[in-house]
């Protein structure tokens, strides 16, 4: 799944030398690379040369991560990274490396690759990034992958010997930093899942109802988590209109576009969702995704669902390259009025879903499109549901608990120390 290196035609061969010049700072090297590049052509005017070349060459930025249990916070980091260049290359850490460094990942590499590759700000994916960036790998990025800048979040990243992992890139002037996304972390999401499982297995009706309230009201309040030892957990996510705009494509369907509609909860957005969206998008020119509000999800799947609230789910879906537009809070039934309003040509639904019981029931939400002859069921390529994801966590949950406690502590410290954070 490694994409081909997409080298800018005229600069093949010149690229690495230009980069080498920037790394080692020699004007002589730059001159040589100019001659090489413009071999057989009139040389550009002195003084304009290198600048002009830099302008023509696409700025390639690199970011890496585990992307285990990927969520819109990761997507936002990728968006920010992409905004620092023209092309974003993402390194995904292998299962072996994650296992060796912090215990087995919940999501296998194959699925993590699908998830990262589907984010609309990602241009290339590298599947075997090291957990801690090594000198050799950094040179490989600069020289083979033609990376101009390595991007990392504002949390410190230390090597086992205590030195800064990005020291080399920083010294070469090839390092840029982005702000950590406020209000979301895998730790927080795992916490929600553990609570959800605990709620189901607990006979304690008192904690049961308080958790129910927690999950049906969008995770906003402080909760006491007596059983899992991580203390008070607070969700910090505050959706702003600007964030939604940043995630949006900002364009409607073109004239004569064939509009495909798919709806669902899209809770804990996973590779199964990505794959069905990819297929749905392939059936038309514009994919409109209806995301059910929290109350509809709760009433269909239980009070402990959804794990992610409507706004969080919307951001995850919006970040997917196959999605053109979302309805934030779509109705359960696809009505004639909706089909007319959005000029929907085709309504689709996957074979793998958490709850396909409605098909046996009396009020099929797709009755109208079925009657109009514009409904199609799609074979889901992956046998994955939100419950699969939750089950994976649960089966590992002892290990997660330990990790969770450690990370929760460092996150608590981050929030205690934090000051104003610029929104981008
Ligand atoms: C509605 O969709 C069809 C394609 O299915 C397209 O030909 C038509 O132009 C669209 N109508 C409008 C008003 O955009």
Automatic annotation (TrEMBL):
Keywords: Lipid biosynthesis, Lipid metabolism, Membrane, Nucleotidyltransferase, Phospholipid biosynthesis, Phospholipid metabolism, Transferase, Transmembrane, Transmembrane helix
Region (Disordered): 201-224
Top enzyme category: transferase
The Cytidyltransferase-like domain, residue ranges: 62-191, 261-354
GO molecular function: ethanolamine-phosphate cytidylyltransferase activity
Segments crossing the lipid bilayer: 20-38
InterPro entries: CCT (IPR041723), Cyt_trans-like (IPR004821), Ect1/PCYT2 (IPR044608), Rossmann-like_a/b/a_fold (IPR014729)
EC number: 2.7.7.14
Record's catalysed reaction(s): phosphoethanolamine + CTP + H(+) = CDP-ethanolamine + diphosphate
Gene Ontology biological-process annotations: phosphatidylethanolamine biosynthetic process
Pathway annotation from the record: Lipid metabolism; Phospholipid metabolism; phosphatidylethanolamine biosynthesis; phosphatidylethanolamine from ethanolamine: step 2/3
Bias (Polar residues) ranges: 203-215
Top-rank lineage group of the source organism: Eukaryota
GO CC terms of this entry: cytoplasm
Gene3D superfamilies tied to this protein: HUPs
CDD domains (UniProt xref): CCT, ECT
Family: Belongs to the cytidylyltransferase family.
Name this protein carries in UniProt: Ethanolamine-phosphate cytidylyltransferase
